Amino acid sequence: MSLKQLYRRFSDWQRNPCKYEEIGGETHCCCNCGQEYAGAYCPRCGQKARAGRITWETVRNGLMDLFGLGGRSLPYSVWQLLWRPGYFISDYINGKWQVSFPPVKMLVIVTFLVFFIGQFLFPEYWAEVIEDQPATLTSTGVEYYVDSAINWLSAHPEWGILFIFSILILPTWFVFRYAPRNPRHTLPQGFFIQVFMTIQYFIWNFVLSLVLAWTGLNVQQAWAVSVCFLPLMVIVDYKQLFGYGWRGTLWRLAAIVAIIALSLLMIVVICVTLEKPDGYLVEHHFRPISIFMTFATGFGTLLSLIDAINRRSWREQGVWRSMLLPLLFFMVMMLCLIVLEIQRPGAFFQALVS
Asked: Does residue 136 have a pLDDT over 70?
């Protein structure tokens, strides 16, 4: 079999891994409730048709249930998530829950297993990754709460990674809402998308870090190399999940990065401006509302431009009509900049570098 045929088989498996057997005409009598039926499960009580004599398979399933691994298998779900991530996530958010282990429970169990295995194989290496004693905080004010949050996230990396991925929920919904696959997906679906991606990244990061640790790299170098894997993982996941090609996926992910970067910059500049000492704003003629309006209209320009390109509205409305809203936002932004410069020359750029 050629490589091309192997890849085609693998690609077909990614899209449709489950092969369900046809229900035969054989009837069963349920050992639990006495119902006669055809199929693999009793329609009255849900017991399996194969239930009966206790075998070693029954013992194995009982032990798996003890650790929450029975029924919808955790290893099966992890395997699916690693080799067909976007399709697997798409199956789950479209209602195919029976083939997936519950995602939030999966995150907790995978985190426990990762730390247990990591400490067993590389105790010294893993001790550097997770610090038992967080650093003592000496900061005050807003910086104290920021440092406290950073310390907590460092001690609980699984929730820190989930928090980072959660930032993608809203921009992903906005940018990919016209996708060929899973269009108009909801924000709750977006939450589970990011939960699955957190699990996936956590496992790949763990595997790559251990492999790199075997080569003799220190913890900082190993984690730096494994983090470089993140963009490729996100690209593959989103391509499979939303059905765009490589180019369509890449520019939309670039748009998400631009949205997040501008949002963070706006928050930082506004917070820094408002943290100025009493009387500073009046003395230097700062107008926080002008800075906010400049960023808000710039944000509106970016969103409206992305939306116009994403919907390809120029095919029906023409270029000028489709770009009317982005141009309006841009003109208002330039007007805000002019007003801000008239109030105090260089105020906007000073706010950026302060």
From this structure: no
